[in-house]
Design brief:
Layout lengths: L11 H16 L13 E5 L4 E9 L3 E7 L12 E7 L4 E7 L21 H13 L6 E3 L9
Antiparallel strand pairs: 1-2, 1-6, 2-3, 3-4, 4-5
Helix pairs in contact: 1-2
Length: about 150
């Protein structure tokens, strides 16, 4: 068997460990069971920067949040943004969409029309981990105006 004929096999335990780390990082600054109508957006500030977080959906066992990092220096560079499903019963946080990828497949055959890597799903969840590491999250700011930032 040659190297070219090998198929990519995802390491599920490594992926679940990554999603578990992301879940615990998010819990450091997010209140579990936050009502859907209260505090639906907030900012997390650290030494390196700020993250904007929006609570989009709140159910008994899951929450859907949008995490983005605002920057104003370069108008040509798009703002990093991910949509994350938080599973409280499984204690996992998984990226559902990122930038222009709206439905992540577990494995991509390579080459493909969008030129996604075979482990694109893992890489995007690793990107979330890097986003969540932006400094030690020193403070959480909840805007007093619910329409702020809309």
């Amino acid at each position: 068997m040659t190297l070219m004929s090998r198929r990519y096999q995802p390491n599920v335990s490594q992926f679940l460990a990554l999603c578990g780390r992301n879940y615990h990082r998010i819990l450091l600054w997010m209140k579990v069971g936050m009502p859907d109508d209260e505090q639906s957006q907030w900012q997390v500030s650290g030494q390196v920067g700020t993250l904007n977080v929006k609570l989009l959906e709140n159910t008994r066992y899951t929450q859907l949040i949008e995490v983005s990092r605002p920057h104003t220096e370069h108008r040509l560079v798009s703002q990093p943004k991910v949509l994350v499903r938080i599973y409280h019963d499984a204690q996992l946080a998984e990226v559902l969409t990122s930038q222009h990828i709206y439905q992540l497949l577990p494995v991509y055959h390579y080459p493909n029309p969008s030129m996604h890597q075979p482990n694109e799903k893992y890489q995007i969840n690793a990107f979330l981990e890097e986003l969540l590491k932006i400094g030690c999250h020193d403070s959480v700011t909840i805007p007093t105006n619910k329409n702020a930032g809309k």
